[in-house]
Sequence to fold (387 residues):
Amino acid sequence: MTLPQGVGSLQDGQLSDASSTSPAHPLATFFHLFFRVSAIVTYVGCDWFSRSFVGCFVTVLLLLSFDFWSVKNVTGRLMVGLRWWNQVDEDGKSHWIFEARKVSPNNITATEAEARIFWLGLIICPIIWIVFFFSTLFSLKLKWLALVIAGISLQAANLYGYILCKMGGESDISKAAASFLSQTVFQTAYLQRQQ
Amino acid sequence: MAEAAESPGDPRTTSPRPLMRDLKAVGKKFMHVLYPRKSNTLLRDWDLWGPLVLCVTLALMLQRGSADNENDGGPQFAEVFVIIWFGAVTITLNSKLLGGNISFFQSLCVLGYCILPLTVALLVCRLVLLAKPGPINFIVRLFVVIVMFAWSIVASTAFLADSQPPNRKALAIYPVFLFYFVISWMILTFAP
Fold:
């Protein structure tokens, strides 16, 4: 399977929001976090909710699937203007396509809050599932391993897809990471000096 | 939810509502499995929702334990799940190593969707098992499972065979045969 990154940019086809302080897509923001957090909460609390392994397994799996679908198809597009998909052309070759929308200057504040929530939700949850993986492995509750692996794959797939969208024209991961780190360090240093 | 206008760059978006689009795509693929003919739909627009639903349904129905038991069918559920996904991944790797011209997810998609006839067989078997047990009961179930097994094989070969180099077709199809055979065996030997 080839993975060329075709990067396009969309025109901002959305109407600008009248209020620039509140998030433009409250429903999308809610659902972005709702499914992920519910999946984690259900997984952790299933011993208290019900004694049924199967019920818990199926519920968590359903929540993870809903989360995968909604983050991939809806919330990424609405909250940060990124999307990615797979396309198979005539001769059977499959291409992965990553797109990022050009940011319009009038919605910056609302977009920033949403973007922060989006990325935080996207990054923290796979890390939590990796922690679950190790805890399941070492406590030898191996029947949960299938579920945890499914959780990690689904969440990591979205994370990876959106990171590739975000990196866009930067085909060098190390350069992108270095620039991101330098930005963060600079901001932190600046804030510390201000205090 | 407000839907942003889709750019013409995404050819899958003929309608702006992704949920209905995806549900219709899944339904169309189920139809293609039930009436297999040479078409590229399963391969071109792959998705793994159908296989997930079928896998969960199969795993739920193949449980043995009673509802109040602590170990309520847990091992069987996870077993079926792992067998299906691990088996499908192994077959895909095998066909790729044999030089197949199909992508990883497309192959998983086809294999998963072609479990549909066997799921129908399981439903029928469970209904038949409500009747009086005996040799006739078993023969009916055997017949149904064999027919559905053949249907699954025909459906998956219709989609997968083209992507293999011609002298390797048997080598690529044999694991598919084994995969569906194992699932059919689990269905046939199921007793609630």
